[in-house]
Amino acid sequence: MGTMEGLEVTDCEQCPALVDCRSQIVNGTGPEDAALLFVGEGPGANEDEQGEPFVGRSGSVLDDKLRDAGLSRMDVRITNCVRCRPPENRDPTKEELSNCREHLEREIELVNPDVIVTLGKVPSQHLLDRNVAVTSEAGSIANAELGGEIRDVLICVHPAATLYDRSQESTFESAIEKAATMAGSSGGQSSLGEF
Ligand code: URA
Q1: 176: domain CATH number?
Q2: Span from the CA of 192 to the centroid of ligand 1 (angstroms)
Q3: Number of domains within the chain
Q4: What range defines the domain where residue 54 resides?
Q5: Ligand 1 center to 41 CA (angstroms)
Q6: What are the residues facing 108 on neighbouring strands?
Q7: Which of 85, 129, 147, 180 could be bridged to 108 by S-S, CB 3.0 to 4.6 A?
Q8: Which atom, in ligand 1's list, is nearest to the CA of 159?
């Protein structure tokens, strides 16, 4: 199992198919005390290559919408339900999700965010343990016991959904704006930094 104490998983080998496929374990990124924790599904090719969540096209969409909402990627924590790339970008299996759950629970407990934002159907259903119609439920808050506490979970569509279906762009934007408001986007970084 290796290092199990902190936010970084260094040598987990619980999922044979993912161990075969990955080039590295992709841990969460961002402040260890972030008010907002974004949770995606799992690393894709770019993330597997660079060792950081949401660095491909989905990541650009997320970065842009965070900026529009007055946040920077540097202000938030970003992680995934599974930390190793599934083959051919398939969805993680129930077993893989459950194997990786301990890492996610520990990250939630240590970061202790004000709001957890689920990016897409897989993380929404995984964290809420029910079927979620992400498009119609996006922007709504649900409660779930995560990292030892009942927490606010803001349901959101996956950033890639906006690339396939432009009508999802405003759905995504509104949810990110709501996340920024809930986390008090006025605190922290000075807006003068933009000039
Ligand atoms: N999609 C995800 O769900 N997670 C990533 O890290 C990248 C793309």
Answers
A1: 3.40.470.10
A2: 31
A3: 1
A4: 16-183
A5: 6
A6: none
A7: 147
A8: 1
